[in-house]
Amino acid sequence: MAALVVALDQPLPPVAGQARVSDGDSFRLGDERIRLLGMDAPELAQQCDTADGSKWTCGRSARDRMAELLSSGAVDCRPEGRDQYDRLLATCRVNDQDLGAIMVGEGLAVSSGGYWTEEAAARRDSRGIWAGSFDRPRDWRDDEARPHNALSWLGDLWP
């Protein structure tokens, strides 16, 4: 039993190599799917509003920027666990730069823990999604998961 406890407590080994983008906060490294820790990027289908109220495809912009970053060198990831989809949850770097810090700092993701300074700077300077208005990615996903039809609002009237 003690051996099992020790085995479960072992840190996951680092993973590194060339990565292929999935979206603004996840990618593949070989056969491994990786989700960046501490940040949440808009979903691929998500749109945001610019300062003048026009729409832009912020989810695609986040994915495209992540693809650009991943193409600039080998990725080095330090996994901390797995999520409910069996993706590695990791902090990753390219060319010794933290991918989460870059994405949040450029206003292409929000902090979900650990990148509050970068988010505050992006918000202050109206970078990326902070230049207009947007739904936080978590809220957007939750809204998309709810049934949408002409009468669905009636369900909100009853507990």
TrEMBL record:
Residues 20-132 form the TNase-like domain. It holds the Pfam family SNase. SMART domains: SNc (SM00318). InterPro entries: SNase_OB-fold_sf (IPR035437), Staphylococal_nuclease_OB-fold (IPR016071). This is Thermonuclease family protein. It comes from Candidatus Devosia phytovorans.
